[in-house]
Design a protein that fits this description.
It is a single chain. By secondary structure, this protein is an alpha/beta fold. The chain is 35% helix and 20% strand. It has helices spanning 89-96, 101-106, 111-120, 123-138, 155-172, 194-211, 229-241, 258-264, 278-287, 295-300, 309-315, 335-344, 350-356, 359-364, 392-395, and strands at 12-19, 24-25, 36-41, 44-50, 63-65, 70-73, 75-77, 142-148, 175-183, 217-220, 247-250, 269-272, 290-293, 319-321, 374-375, 382-385, 404-407, 410-414. The strands form four sheets. Strands 1, 3, 4, 5, 6, 16, 17 and 18 form an eight-stranded mixed sheet that branches. Helix 12 packs antiparallel against helix 13 (350-356). The protein is globular, with a radius of gyration of 21 Å. The two termini are 22 Å apart. It binds 3-[(4S)-2,5-dioxoimidazolidin-4-yl]propanoic acid and fe (iii) ion.
């Protein structure tokens, strides 16, 4: 396993960078085609500008020559269910044989089967299972990630998932935002008592876990096979009482009106949104809520209902792209592949897809002041790529490019030998 302290400091002047368009804020304007320097000091970006304009104050720092490599901010995966026991390849086979996601769920498979495996696993076992998944994402330049609970569905097991999420962040030196998704599915012991379970989520589970500092945001699966609009609002009210931001699994399988509700609660994001209405878009636009697109789930479920991209674009709703890594509907471990699929399946432009896995993904986590952009005053999270143009990041299918990664001010990977 990777430990941040084992890696060298990134402090110094990173020279000869091509800054990805729209993903960096130079302190001194860059002439067309000019190569840029990024100054890192004490783990923070201190200055961004043309190589030729490096301020004298930084002249004595060590210099690393990037020779024209493309620089992006560290990637942000803003929607994952990374911590769980077991896997669901069996359901994959069932779906290939014709069963729908809803049929599999109603037959006792689906989320509840991951709940069984997650409850049966110890905290250490869950950590060991999630660590290589996280490593795969980190190797591609992810520097901040959201991890949801929602496979425990009982206080002790939701706690276990969230504790593992926190431990992963500390052990790997990566920004982790935890999201409590107690209202993900009805646990089997509450069959037929969905209101009782919602009350438990709101009055016991969420307050206890929030008091333990394990919750950065609150999410609900608002859907015919999950929680109603009224129950969703009840959870949002509980979150509001605790001062926690909300987000929503909304309009994935049907239009429940969840996005408009979430927007009324100032939601950070509405995620999936294949069935989002014009009214939902307008509400999100007014609230500044991010639309999180999850092409891995769309693809895995062989969905045909496209999220309303042109209308989101026209309304100026920021669009993020994420893996939705989970064992049921999106066993995806490549954020670049998701960028590719967002372009090919959803018709995002390359700049939209790249903003979707950086700047807008950071906003979906409330991290827009610190992540998703190369700019002075932020923690040093950047990735150098051996590509001729930025479009290559979304163009290759499953390439896992060699790259050099600075995460939290450390050179955690240097496949390109820049820091040699
Ligand atoms: N929507 C999803 O895509 C995941 N959760 C959710 O609410 C699927 C989770 C699973 O099938 O295990
Ligand atoms: Fe999800």
């Amino acid at each position: 396993m990777e430990s941040l302290h084992a890696h060298p400091s990134a402090d110094g002047v990173w020279q000869g960078l091509r800054l990805a368009e729209g993903l960096a804020v130079p302190d001194v304007a860059l002439p067309e085609g000019a190569l840029a320097s990024v100054v890192v000091r004490q783990g923070q970006v201190r200055w961004v500008g043309p190589d030729a304009a490096l301020p004298a104050a930084f002249a004595a720092l060590p210099r690393w020559q990037a020779g024209g490599l493309l620089a992006t901010p560290g990637l942000v995966d803003c929607h994952t269910h990374l911590v769980y026991g077991g896997q669901r390849a069996h359901e994959f086979a069932l779906r290939l044989a014709g069963a729908s996601y809803e049929e599999v769920a109603r037959a006792g498979g689906g989320i509840v089967s991951s709940v069984r495996a997650t409850r049966a696993a110890s905290e250490d076992e869950l950590f060991a299972l999630a660590a290589p998944r996280l490593q795969a994402l980190l190797d591609e330049g992810v520097c901040a990630i959201e991890i949801k609970s929602g496979y425990g569905l009982a206080l002790e097991h939701e706690r276990k998932q969230l504790r593992v999420a926190r431990r992963l962040g500390e052990a790997f030196g990566v920004t982790v935002r935890t999201t409590f998704l107690g209202a993900h599915a009805l646990p089997p012991e509450y069959a037929g008592r969905d209101q009782d379970y919602t009350d438990l989520v709101c009055h016991e589970m969420l307050p206890a876990l929030a008091a333990e500092g394990l919750v950065d945001a609150v999410d609900v699966f608002c859907e015919r096979i999950a929680f109603t609009l009224a129950q969703t609002e009840q959870v949002f009210q509980a979150a509001r009482r605790l001062g926690l931001p909300v987000k929503l699994h909304a309009e994935q399988l049907s239009d429940m009106g969840g996005s408009a509700l979430a927007a009324r609660y100032g939601a950070l994001s509405c995620d999936h949104i294949e069935h989002l209405s014009q009214e939902g878009i307008a509400a999100m636009q007014r609230a500044g809520t991010v639309a999180v697109l999850l092409p891995g789930a769309y693809y895995t479920l062989r969905d045909t209902q496209l999220p309303p991209i042109p209308a989101l674009r026209a309304a100026g709703v920021p669009m993020a792209v994420s893996t939705d890594h989970n064992p049921g509907t999106s066993p995806a471990l490549s954020l670049l592949l998701m960028a590719n699929m967002a372009c090919t399946l959803f018709r995002l432009t390359v700049p939209e897809a790249l903003a979707g896995i950086t700047t807008h993904a950071a906003r979906a986590l409330g991290l827009q002041a610190t992540h998703g952009l190369i700019a002075a005053g932020r923690p040093a999270n950047l990735v150098l790529w051996p590509v001729a143009e930025a479009a290559e990041l979304a163009y290759w299918l499953g390439q896992k490019p060699a790259c050099t990664i600075v995460r939290q001010g450390r050179v955690v990977r240097d496949a390109l030998g820049v820091h040699g």
